[in-house]
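Team,

Forwarding the record for the chain on the shared tracking sheet. I've put the sequence and predicted structure together so nobody has to dig through attachments.
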Amino acid sequence: MIDNEKVEEIFLTLEDKLDKTVAVLQDDYAAIRAGRANPHILDKLQVEAYGSMSPLQQLGNVSVADARCLVISPWDKSLLKAIEKAILASNIGITPVNDGNVIRLVFPMLTEERRKELVKQVRKMGEDAKVAARNVRREAMEALKKMKTGKELSEDESKNCEQDVEEAVGKCMTSIETTVSAKEKELMTV
């Protein structure tokens, strides 16, 4: 690695953006249900409470009762209807059961057809993440090219930096592929 602040900054930005690309993909995958109760499916759920929209996690406890059932225990029982309404509006495909104290979400078993649809969705999200990683690579390469034309980097230094960029992006692509195949495997496991 070359001892140059601009190059260092380019690589720090590159690593940060690549890490975020993988993290966003993993967060998105956490919201896809695989026939098992997964509290992360509710991470982005906003509930109208006390006159404003609040994340569900701030309004109650979400726990896994068994392999196919989530239990939502709001701290304030008066929010049960609002939580139920938010779940119905969120299109997660599960009907909430309100017993007056808690809300239960029972996850139905996925059909083979639904599993295949979810795998297609997972692959598309993986492709989108790869496109994002390629865009990050392009930005880094353009920044290095500007430095080379501005005579801030020699030809050899530029080639070495470009190889380092390719190596970092290659690691990110491998990480994305590993994440995609793990999610596919999870979805296809009955």
